[in-house]
Amino acid sequence: FFRSLPEGQKDKVMYAEALLVYANTAARVAKHRQTQAGWMKVSSVEMLDMARRNADEAGKILKQLNHPNAGNAYRVKGVIELSQKDFQQARKYFRMALREFSKSEDGCKTVWCAVSFWNMHITLKALGRMPESL
């Protein structure tokens, strides 16, 4: 899919993907940072706020381009909520991610679609809704 995009759109997709990598990493680091001594100058709250903003911006870009990976922005937002143990919000975002991925055949084939299913399973399990996750 990426190779078929015009050059101007490739730059936007690469920027959006970089935002998502940063947001996903920030969510994971913020989760672990809460249990660590202050080794970073940025608080966990600031990291998560930045991660949310980056995921939102990436989602807007990818949706404007009708990119099959647009659902990954919702998945990352779910990861952010999952890192904060807000399982209801995480579930909402993983569901949105799966809906977005299902809009195209290419979206269903991305690795992030599979990861979204796994994230949903983890979330439903944490909510005590194991039968739903199977």
Write the topology of this structure.
Layout: H1 7-33, H2 44-64, H3 71-83, H4 87-101, H5 105-108, H6 111-126, H7 130-133
Describe it.
The chain has 134 residues and is mainly α. The chain contains seven helices and no strands. It has helices spanning 7-33, 44-64, 71-83, 87-101, 105-108, 111-126, 130-133. Helix 1 (7-33) runs antiparallel to helix 2 and helix 3 (71-83) runs antiparallel to helix 4. The mean pLDDT is 87.
Write a concise synopsis of the structure shown.
The chain is mainly alpha-helical. Helix content is 75%, strand content 0%.
Properties at a glance:
134 residues; mainly alpha; 7 helices; flat
Main sheet attributes: strand count, strand direction, barrel closure: none
Tally the helices.
Answer: 7
Based on CA atoms alone, the radius of gyration comes out at 15 Å
**What's the β-strand tally?**
0
